[in-house]
Write a structure and sequence with these properties.
mainly alpha, 77% helix, Flag_MotA_CS, MotA-like, membrane
């Protein structure tokens, strides 16, 4: 689980609530929530296919619960496989594939075992990486769109509140509720956009880059396996993808 996402949301909302203090009840207005939250969901359904819009909750969960192999672990595993290939040949990996949790690595290794040429493996795996990047981009774009829709619905709510207020200037008792809608819808829209949607879009983009980097390391490593490259040379090549602080040789 990504503690940073949960902690960030708690801290951001907590500081806002702390600043509001004992007047929190004044900031709870169901009509304003209906305009912003309901309106934002409605606009999302207009902008995206139903299947994608319904999957937005699952995409949001990926910012909280996400598992990705570290670059160091992946390189160590590839070096281990390279040593097996150097000793017993590529077919010796047949029994190893079943124990690999990373589906992308398992697919590449199976193609190598089946005798596919390096250029064929590269073409197929790069195509899969492109599709993965496309899916990730779609999820991040939805949250970027939500971060745009929410403040816009807040502005619409503000206009609604102002119109209601101006229509009932002769009734002082109606001015307060109308002004509440006018101000709180903008407040809700800003909160949803800047504490939830836009930061989540940024986190999804970061996760995508991390996963694609791991996939590129795997791709290069499998190509080295196929051509029988020396494990030490392969390791040095793959460690170049990592920051200096994360580089650790399996031969030390």
């Amino acid at each position: 689980m990504d503690i940073a996402t949960l902690l960030g949301i708690i801290v951001a909302f907590g500081l806002v609530i702390f600043a509001i203090g004992s007047g929190i009840s004044s900031f709870i207005d169901p009509p304003s929530l209906m305009i912003v939250v309901g309106g934002t969901v409605g606009v999302l359904l207009v902008g995206y296919p139903l299947k994608n819009a319904l999957g937005v909750i699952g995409v949001a969960l990926k910012t909280f619960m996400y598992k990705v192999d570290t670059g160091a672990d992946v390189i160590a595993k590839l070096v281990e496989l390279a040593q097996t290939v150097r000793k017993d040949g590529i077919l010796a990996l047949e029994s190893e594939v079943k124990n690999i949790d990373n589906a992308f690595m398992a697919k590449g290794l199976q193609m190598a075992i089946d005798g596919q040429e390096p250029n064929v493996i590269e073409e197929i795996l790069y195509m899969e990486m492109d599709k993965i990047a496309e899916r990730h981009s779609r999820g991040a774009d939805m949250f970027t769109s939500l971060g745009t829709y929410a403040p816009s619905m807040g502005m619409i709510g503000t206009l609604v509140g102002l119109v209601l207020m101006l229509q009932n200037m002769s009734d002082p008792s109606s001015i307060g509720p109308s002004m509440s809608i006018a101000l709180l819808t903008t407040f809700y829209g800003a909160l949803i956009a800047n504490i939830l949607c836009l930061p989540m879009a940024g986190k999804l983009k970061t996760r995508s880059k991390e996963e694609l980097l791991i996939h590129e390391i795997i791709l290069v490593g499998i190509q080295s396996l196929v051509v029988g490259e020396n494990p030490r040379i392969m390791e040095q090549k793959l460690l170049g993808y990592l920051p200096p602080k994360e580089r650790k040789s399996s031969f030390e």
